[in-house]
Request: fold
Amino acid sequence: MNIWHHIGAERIQPEDFIAVIEIEKGSKVKYELDKETGMLLMDRILHTSTHYPASYGFIPRTFADDGDPMDVLVLCTEPIAPMSLVRVYPIGVISMMDSGSLDDKIIAIPFEDPTYNCHRSIEALPSHIFSEMKHFYKVYKELEHKETVVGDEIRGRRDAVEIVRKSIAAYNEKFGTANQHDDCANSGQMEPSFACCTHGR
Reply:
């Protein structure tokens, strides 16, 4: 099973989707999806004296402009453990350029966090939350001598929903429909070949 692919399409909707957590809030450990296995691979320890300002992960069954699943930052009262699944809704998006590629990061809130789930837009939350996010992404690769360019504006819910919608459509175009993946999951084919679900990767 690979969580990027093997989850019901009905659980990934532009306004209501499952997020897979890779990095918990407050961590300096950069994990990322190992695309071959669907497990987490430790990529590195951050070189700067910064830590993730929110729990961070990806949206299954999406395909972003950088060739990875769509990134998501989850605002939550507590840090969320890596490889947890969290049902969330989008409220905004940070856009940045990372190593020359467009890199959107959806900002989302868990349906089941009573501290946050009364908020439906970024305007309802303290602006400092988003200032921290932008500052983190501006500096977190500086000591690796890699450049990131973060947009000045955090865009709102409407833009976030549209970006998720496009990333779902891009996934379906690249990897096929839900039925194709269900057939692959039920075929008994073993990892790591994952052949019928990774064509064109």
